[in-house]
Specification:
heterodimer, A: mainly alpha, two-stranded antiparallel sheet, 76% helix, globular, B: mainly alpha, MetI-like fold
Chain lengths: 323, 306
């Protein structure tokens, strides 16, 4: 177990190293960092000084080592636009994104499990067919298009919901949140639904597949034979057993939801990290781009590490096979 | 059996009573929805190919645009007596023509990236399965690693580094997609590899390249074709998303996603059609491909047959 753990952590570290090299080479070798980092109005002398101060006269491998050591110190450069540390800028925007992603995940569970349960218990009913057809649409429709249609319907046509921004926020744990105010919740409704749509489809399918499988098992047949109430069979015998895998998968998908929040935040002008990165790419604010990419890579490396660990705990074959 | 069915799909054995190809066609035609999808898809393909001849207007020839006809609602007739069935944008561009041209770019990017990703992914997957050992471990580790990151993040990473452009988008999509082909090709090839015909080919001392591409590959095609269909749809959707975000194709070559993005700013003031109709075109394309792909999977999957 310990050697398996070490092996995985070593691999995660290696992935971070490779990704940092790719990002470094991409940003600092393809574009000319001198043009990007130094104001075009600078005089030749100022340029000279700036190049030396930024270490741009050093060989590439040395620059990369500097980049790495700065990375390890959490120093990812300053945003050209906001003139604050890039990491700080991103972390400031993080709560808005997390709020959206967590709300979307919860919505996916709350809406997806009952629908999937119904589709699994009554697979032949027309309602189930439309639920499943809906889930196929949820998978295949590009989410930005759904977002636009939502705005068209609820903001432009009906005028019920605001189309952009976070609305009023309230402070909790020293951070501003939208979900604590009514206005904030109204602003959250459409982005959350938009972001959740893919997850809802996935939860429906997972739940339905789980129900179809569990319903044939001996313990459900036995419960029926014992003459238990149908509601007890459904909610205790069936639901309890399928909840664990569904919640695990959805929980592990939180990272993907955060990545896809880029699209939702752009549509609804939600001031989170996703909107920040798109804005930064459009105005070539490279330190912010680098910081965002490295942060996301780190997040996924950690998530993958967790997945591996969880599976190795749940299934001994995984860690034995890894030797 | 699989080999002959594939050969007859492409080679086309004429005559005969029950060729594998005919059986395949009959099985495919059993689903009305899939046939409908195929018909719609063919029409979309034809429109995309022949857009310059079919479109009422060349939307990027500024001489043909009349700024006085800007922001017209669908089905209004402009000053020059020309009826804009899907309305115009702020420059007086006929949206119907813009959508036809946009389809061209969307389909080119989607299909082009799918073909390239197919070539790269299938080759690496076959190589991994055929050689096994360290080669296999190395390639599949990379595949697993890449698939653990969401596609949009990988594409974002590449386009943030390369900047926008049609070829950059194609490249980003190939890098995103090849892993799916590699995984599928490897899974199929691992099964085929232990078959007698591969052994026979090895005994004949045929060159490895020939065994992999002429013997293994044709027998691994059915699952790859299914994956390819689905990947074209997801590539088109991803390209549209990236273009919507302003990271995809350049403004001079607007795909459907970019048309939607351009119209988006006018939507809040009620001019819905600039965004809406390109969106419908995108939607119909993606759903049609998925219908075909979904049914292809059922038809080509030997597990479901037996």
């Amino acid at each position: 177990m310990v050697s398996y753990l070490l092996n995985r952590i070593l691999q995660a570290g290696l992935v971070m190293l490779v990704m940092s090299a790719i990002v470094f080479l991409g940003v600092f070798a393809i574009g000319n960092p001198v043009d990007i980092l130094i104001s075009p109005q600078a005089t030749a002398l100022q340029r000279e000084e700036a190049i030396r101060a930024l270490g741009l006269d050093l060989p590439v491998w040395h620059q990369y080592l500097n980049f790495l050591s700065n990375l390890l110190h959490g120093d990812l450069g300053r945003s050209f636009v906001f003139n604050v540390p890039a990491l700080q800028l991103i972390l400031e925007r993080m709560p808005a994104t997390l709020e959206l992603a967590i709300a979307a995940t919860l919505l996916a569970l709350v809406a997806g499990i009952p629908l999937g349960l119904y589709a699994g218990l009554a697979p032949k009913s027309p309602v189930s067919s439309s639920i499943m057809a809906g889930s196929i649409l949820g998978f295949s429709l590009p989410s930005f298009w759904v977002g636009i249609v939502l705005i068209m319907l609820f903001s432009v046509h009906l005028g019920w919901l605001p189309s952009s921004g976070r609305g009023d926020t309230a402070v909790w744990l020293g951070v501003r949140w939208s979900f604590l105010t009514v206005d904030g919740l109204a602003h959250m409704a459409m982005p959350v639904l938009n972001l959740a749509l893919f997850q809802i489809s996935m939860v429906i399918r997972l739940t339905r597949a789980g129900v179809r499988e569990v319903i044939l098992s001996d313990y459900v047949k036995f419960a029926r034979a014992k003459g238990l109430r149908e509601s007890r069979i459904i909610f205790v015998h069936i639901l309890k057993n399928i909840l664990i895998p569904v919640i695990t998968v959805v929980g592990l998908n939180l990272g993907t939801v955060i990545a896809f929040a880029v699209v939702t935040e752009t549509i609804f002008s939600w001031p989170g990290m996703g909107k920040l990165i798109i804005d930064s790419i459009n105005i070539l604010d490279r330190p912010v781009i680098v910081a965002y990419l490295m942060l996301m890579v780190l997040m996924f490396v950690i998530i993958n590490l967790l997945v591996d660990l969880i599976y190795s705990v749940l299934d001994p074959r995984v860690r034995l096979g890894a030797r | 059996m699989a080999a002959t069915s594939i050969r007859s799909i492409f080679g086309g054995r004429k005559g005969g009573e029950q060729t594998p190809f005919r059986r395949f066609v009959a099985e495919f035609a059993a689903s009305k929805l899939a046939v409908l999808g195929l018909v719609v898809l063919s029409m979309i393909g034809l429109i995309a190919i022949f857009a310059p001849w079919l479109a009422p207007q060349n939307p990027y020839d500024l001489a043909q645009l009349d700024i006085m006809d800007g922001m017209l609602e669908p089905a209004t007739t402009g000053g020059s007596g020309f009826t804009y069935w899907l309305g115009t944008d702020e420059q007086g561009r006929d949206m119907l023509s813009a959508i036809m041209y946009g389809l061209r770019i969307s389909l080119f990017v989607g299909a082009g990236s799918a073909v390239l990703a197919f070539v790269v992914g299938a080759t690496l997957g076959l190589v991994a399965a055929y050689f096994g050992g360290k080669t296999d471990a190395l390639i599949m580790r990379w595949v697993d690693l890449q698939l653990s990151f969401p596609s949009i993040l990988v594409a974002l990473l590449i386009l943030a580094l390369l900047g926008r452009g049609v070829m950059n988008v194609v490249m980003a999509l190939v890098i995103v997609e090849w892993a799916y082909y590699a995984r599928t090709a490897r899974a199929a090839a691992l099964v085929e590899r232990s078959r007698e015909y591969v052994e026979a080919a090895q005994c004949l001392a045929l060159p490895t390249r020939r065994i992999v591409f002429r013997h293994l590959l044709p027998n691994c095609l059915p699952p790859l074709i299914v994956i390819a269909t689905m990947q074209v749809a997801s590539a088109i959707a991803l390209e549209a998303t990236l273009s919507f975000l302003g990271l995809g194709v350049p403004v001079t070559e607007p795909s459907l996603g970019l048309l939607i993005s351009n119209g988006y700013q006018y939507m809040l003031s009620g001019n819905y059609w600039i965004s809406f109709y390109p969106g419908v075109a995108l939607l119909v394309t993606i759903v049609a491909i998925n219908l075909v792909g979904d049914h292809l999977r059922d038809v080509l999957n030997p597990r479901l047959k037996s």
